[in-house]
Amino acid sequence: MRRLLPALLALPALLGLVACDAATTAPGATPATGCGPATAVVADTDVVPVGGDPGSSLPATVDSADGTKVTVTDASRILPVNLYGSIAEIVFSLGLGGRVIGRDTSTTFAAAAHLPVVTPAGHDLAAEAVLRLNPTVVLADTSIGPPEVLTQLRRAGIPVVLIDDEQSLAAIPRNIRAIAAALGVPAAGELLVSRVDAEIAEARRSAPADGTPLRIAFLYVRGTAGVYLIGGKGAGSDEMIRAIGATDAGTEIGLSRFRPLTSEGLINAAPDVILVMTEGLESVKGVDGLLALPGVGQTPAGQHRRIVDMDDGMLLSFGARTGRTIQALAEAVHRPCT
């Protein structure tokens, strides 16, 4: 993934939880027993608009994240694309889903499922597929590309507004406001910011108020591609881990963004829980396959099979559904063991 995995050229809750708790193996704590794998499940993954289509007040001239000023005169045919699906998620949540004409492969929620995909080669835009849809505005970030396609779209007269691609909780309200401003719906943007902030605050209150925080390591694994990485500071996963009252094990041993997974590094990180994306877990043939990777079985998490997986389209999207994601993750990680 371009933004999350800079070392690689092409890479990029509420019900139905099965989980186990929190006795940690950190100093002074008691190792958890009887724990097993858990899946963090958000019961309703579809977007919920703040209201009906509010209508756009245009033209709007906005600052694109690449330093250019872009004027949007027509938002009747919107194409939101990025690596995480978060831009489309925000557009639909603003009440503008009826104007969206296409999607990226990461936009998987039900309201957008019928839309044509414009990223047939993983997360690369196909210029022909975009131009065929005749968008009046394209919303993207630097996680999507190649840059030449975005330049080609601008040369074709299509306003392309780039949104900041920072993966953090603090960036969510900024991105909502930027998208709302570009589409001429600032009031709807403020309504959505208020709702998302409240949902995240409520979800964070579910974190344990006392006790030694769990150490959680996020592993990005793609067994079919031979990709095995561990997250650290700035990876995005660290934000989600802190939001549920836990400690990011990768950050604690000095890692930043994503680094190749080594047995020594993972053993030193000593995670109580290992967090992975669902498709990643499937790519290594499940929990047993993950435990067979070097070092995994030697960690407290591996010894107790404390593996938590979560849907790829939810875990690191940092969009309008983030409060639900945090709640689901907290429930999966902190629910008592049996």
Automatic annotation (TrEMBL):
Membrane-spanning intervals of the chain: none
The protein's name: ABC transporter substrate-binding protein
Family: Belongs to the bacterial solute-binding protein 8 family.
Signal peptide location: 1-22
Keywords per UniProt: Signal
Organism: Micromonospora craniellae
Fe/B12 periplasmic-binding domain segment(s): 79-338
PANTHER family, A to Z: HEMIN-BINDING PERIPLASMIC PROTEIN HMUT, VITAMIN B12-BINDING PROTEIN
